[in-house]
Amino acid sequence: GENVEQHPSTLSVQEGDSAVIKCTYSDSASNYFPWYKQELGKRPQLIIDIRSNVGEKKDQRIAVTLNKTAKHFSLHITETQPEDSAVYFCAASIETSYDKVIFGPGTSLSVIP
Amino acid sequence: ETGVTQTPRHLVMGMTNKKSLKCEQHLGHNAMYWYKQSAKKPLELMFVYSLEERVENNSVPSRFSPECPNSSHLFLHLHTLQPEDSALYLCASSQGASGSSYNEQFFGPGTRLTVL
What is the pLDDT of residues B35-81, one digit of tens each? Predict the structure, then answer.
């Protein structure tokens, strides 16, 4: 089955700096890669996703890149702000009749004002 | 509000108790999920239901028993749990339409379970 690894497990950056979180997956059939953000005491929420036919996607200060050959994808956050502090989960999914999503172990990001 | 609700929000139970967690989605989705979130395994998929049929059971102990009476409701029945079962139990739903599964999972707020 699919296995998703994520690094680093914790990350601290100064406000205004960039943050990068990297994930790898094992199943070459995976074709959808969402990223979820979970603030302390709140539910995970989708922040950005990328499909296998795209190499990069950007939404304001957040961007994701995908390298299908190497089976890795990354989340880039620029100009970090204190409200970016949260746990970020990457995930990989294979197209089926339901949306089974395998999550990585998460990265705890702290943005220091 | 994401349209997925869970009750109760907090539950404390003894190892001999029987309790149930309830999840309801108001989004018209076809798939519903139970996840266990703990320090050791942040988001561990337990069960998946698609169109009210269980399609995934990730080697979950039988002391956890899911039930999906219709596409809007999902239950997790708990029976003779262990202290290591203490965790946050998250319900989620997604459109789950066949042919196109690139759909966002909408999570509920979770039930914080403590087993004494």
Answer: 999 987 779 889 989 877 887 777 899 999 999 999 899 999 999 99
At A107 the three-state DSSP class reads strand
Query: Tokens for B25?
Result: 């989605």
Strands (E), chain A: 4-7, 10-14, 19-25, 32-38, 45-51, 56-59, 62-67, 72-77, 86-93, 101-103, 107-112
Strands B18-25 and A45-51: unpaired
Tokens of A6: 């994520």
Q: How far is CA A8 from CA A86, A87, A105, B106, in A?
A: 13, 11, 10, 25
Sort out which chain B residues have CB atoms less than 8 A from A101's CB and list them: 45, 105
Contact A98 B104 (CB under 8 A): no
Nearest C-alpha in B relative to A6: B42
